[in-house]
Specification:
This protein has twelve helices and twelve strands. It is α/β, with parallel strands linked by helices. Strands 1-2-3-4-5-8-11-12 form an eight-stranded parallel β-barrel. Strand 4, helix 6 and strand 5 form a beta-alpha-beta unit. The longest helix has 21 residues. The radius of gyration is 22 Å and the shape is globular. It comes from Perilla frutescens var. hirtella. It is an enzyme of class 3 (hydrolase). It catalyses: Hydrolysis of (1->3)-beta-D-glucosidic linkages in (1->3)-beta-D-glucans.
Length: 384
């Protein structure tokens, strides 16, 4: 039996390595949100290992956690880091902005790729008008501080918006922003054009389906086969809601400022695997379909009907279920993984969460992955 197993080793190595290559290349250019509102998450070094085994090369944080940035040193992962809402008033001061960058960014950029700073999150759909007035000055001051420190060419500044900043989203060509937010968005959009930075939107077809399950076609929301919808103004056909939402944002931008050269990126999208009784559609199967089908669309490198030559840019929400998030049950169940590293459902990604912490250097990644998969291979051989 042992001799037969050894004769199968070259074949098994070929099959195993081919499967491994397909697995690690499956996420393509997609990114993932790494939230940490939980008390049971694995340590950042273990998360770094997990994401490397999944070949995820873009990560979005909601802060600038030094433990995370250190754990991902030399990993090749590109980071979007967040400057929390609580910092906005201070960031209007150039000295405060420069100090924040010197403390939270500069110590890590020699080894960890930081490509973007999001100033605040969903500010314009909150109730604090004063905070809204701080948003653009904070973005401008942080960008100016980066320029002073010679970092503005490698790190861009933006902010993430809720999809609820739109007053109309259908048909996509008639997308418009809320009138009460126009005064804020006009300046923000001019900032994006001047700095060549993207406009970020958090878009969730789940919310539209949950609110109107009798009116929204679930297959349309989940990228499943459906008859689609036709925009009567452009005759463009949409076979999924997310692409229609993205194009509605493009239309709203053009309607407000006349710009058509600002790229729209999706900073959050996902589907919960569990919810409260009134959260219709929050199931593991729907979450699997939404995220899995969207992943396959990303692999196709396609654009939206209105922007076919601009590949969609997506950050999935989220890496883990977060047990301390407030709100309805769905808020705690958007993760692709449980905190122990096991998948909530299968969308074709096979990762590995080690039991202990590891260094995140590129050399150690290669060694760790080799021995991890070698151990799996040996177990397979011994079972023959």
């Amino acid at each position: 039996m042992a001799a037969a197993s050894l004769r199968l080793l070259p074949l098994l190595l070929f099959i195993f390595s081919d499967s491994f290559i397909n697995t690690i290349s499956s996420l393509g250019g997609a990114g993932i949100n790494y939230g940490q509102i939980a008390n049971n998450l694995p340590s950042p070094p273990r998360v770094a290992y997990l994401l490397n085994s999944l070949n995820i090369t873009r990560v979005k944080l909601y802060d600038a956690d030094p433990n995370v940035l250190t754990a991902f040193a030399n990993s090749g992962v590109e980071f979007v880091i967040g400057l929390g809402n609580e910092y906005l008033q201070k960031m209007s001061d150039p000295i405060e902005a420069q100090s924040w960058i010197q403390q939270r960014v500069q110590p890590y950029i020699s080894q960890t790729k930081i490509r973007c700073i999001t100033v605040g999150n969903e500010i314009l759909t909150g109730n604090d008008r004063q905070l809204m007035s701080y948003l653009l000055p904070a973005m401008q001051t942080v960008n100016a501080a980066l320029a002073t420190l010679g970092l503005d060419k490698q790190i861009y500044v933006t902010t993430a918006h809720s999809f609820n900043i739109l007053s109309n989203s259908f048909p996509p060509s008639a997308g418009t922003f809320r009138q009460d937010l126009a005064e804020y968005l006009h300046g923000i959009l001019n900032f994006h054009q001047q700095t060549n930075s993207p406009f970020l939107i958090n878009a969730y077809p789940f919310f539209a389906y949950k609110d109107s399950p009798d009116q929204v076609d679930l297959s349309y929301a989940l990228f499943q086969p459906n008859s689609g919808t036709i925009d009567p103004n452009t005759n463009l056909r949409y076979d999924n809601m997310l692409y229609a939402q993205i194009d509605a944002v493009y239309s709203a931008i053009k309607a407000l400022v006349g710009h058509s050269d600002i790229q729209v990126k999706v900073s959050e999208t996902g589907w919960p695997s569990k919810g409260d009784l009134n959260e219709v559609g929050a199931t593991p199967e729907n979450a699997r379909l939404y995220n899995g089908n969207l992943l396959r669309r990303i692999e196709m490198n396609e654009g939206t009907p209105a922007k076919p030559s601009v590949p969609i840019d997506i950050f999935f929400f989220a890496l883990f279920n977060e047990d301390l998030k407030p709100g309805p049950a769905s808020e705690r169940n958007y993760g692709l993984y449980y905190p122990d590293g096991s998948p909530v459902y299968n969308i074709g990604l096979q990762g590995f969460l080690p039991r202990m912490d590891y260094s995140a250097s590129a050399k150690n990644y290669v060694v760790m992955i080799f021995f991890t998969y070698l151990s799996h291979l040996l177990l397979l051989i011994c079972s023959l």
